[in-house]
Amino acid sequence: MPVVVGLPDPGRCLVMGVVNTTPDSFSDGGLLDDAAAGVAHGLQLVADGADLVDVGGESTRPGAERVDEAEEARRVLPVVEGLAEQGVVVSVDTMRASIARAAVSAGARLVNDVSGGLADPDMVPAMADLGVGYVVMHWRGHSTDMQSRAVYGDVVAEVRSELEERVAAVLAGGVSPERLIVDPGLGFAKQPQHSWALLRSLEQIVSIGYPVLVGASRKGFLGALLSDEAGARPLDDREDATTAVSALAADRGAWAVRVHRARASADAVRVAAACGALR
Fold first, then answer.
1. Annotated catalytic, 219?
2. What is the largest CA-CA distance in the chain?
3. Is 200 a catalytic residue?
4. Residues of the chain with pLDDT > 90: what percent?
5. Among the options 190, 258, 261, 263, which is catalytic?
6. Reduced 3-state DSSP string for the chain
7. 140-145: which pairs have CB atoms within 8 A and are 24 or more residues apart?
8. pLDDT tens digit sequence for 107-153
9. Considering 101, 109, 160, 219, which one is annotated as catalytic?
10. Which of 94, 150, 257, 272 is the most exposed place for a label (fewest CB within 10 A)?
11. Is there a contact between 142 and 119 (Cβ–Cβ < 8 Å)?
């Protein structure tokens, strides 16, 4: 398995648990409305098998409006600090260099930037200075209009090419290659068929040569797959599908899966590792 300097290396796909401190996240917005609740939820994710916890204060669901910097900091930093003080490996989910710097000062060891450094020109220089892990996701624009950009001829080839361009730019900006992670951005400027194509061909993203983070948890392409006469499968009833994707992604070489609930995916990645060892 690929290794990222400064992060856990259990010899299998990692499980990244999600702590959303937002009122409007697509899955669990408003449930963690204060720092104590966020810290408690993060600790529960770890108890359930998460290897690291990703704390975010700005929704990136389709159509979401951005929050201002002060509000994002208010939501995120106390949770990052509280979890880090408890020995949790913490990631911060942000597109802002200022939040990344503050979160690392508060104890974060990874910055998960869904824009891959495109939303804030100061992000790549900040990551070069900070020397922590950095997730570069495939991104074509902010949530307000990203779905209008979900136009591809060959989604796997185009996502791979665009990720390689961002990797080159990030490396040229001084970020150490041993701290770099890539993410194909399932659901971000992707229609359901695009996300499925990327999962089917995940090895093509892995072959870029960097650890790959896969975030499929509860996303719309799962709800669409499981739809019935009542419509898309409700968010809270997509956990079994999320677990299946965790196993498949791990088997295809993912470095980590990002999930809202940890226990089942923690089991799934261990099953995938055991099956891989038998080949």
1. yes
2. 52
3. no
4. 84
5. 258
6. CCCCCCCCCCCCCEEEEEEECCCCCCCCCCCCCCHHHHHHHHHHHHHCCCCEEEEECCCCCCCCCCCCHHHHHHHHHHHHHHHHHCCCCEEEECCCHHHHHHHHHCCCCEEEECCCCCCCCCHHHHHHHHCCEEEEECCCCCCCCHHHHCCCCCHHHHHHHHHHHHHHHHHHCCCCHHHEEEECCCCCCCCHHHHHHHHHCHHHHHCCCCCEEECCCCCHHHHHHCCECCECCCHHHCHHHHHHHHHHHHHCCCCEEEECCCHHHHHHHHHHHHHHHCC
7. 140/188, 140/189, 141/189, 142/66, 143/59, 143/60, 143/61, 143/62, 143/63, 143/64, 143/65, 143/66, 144/63, 144/64, 144/65
8. 999 999 999 999 999 999 999 999 999 999 999 977 677 788 889 99
9. 219
10. 150
11. yes
Q: Tokens for 69, please give them.
A: 């910097």
Tell me the two tokens of residue 276.
């891989």
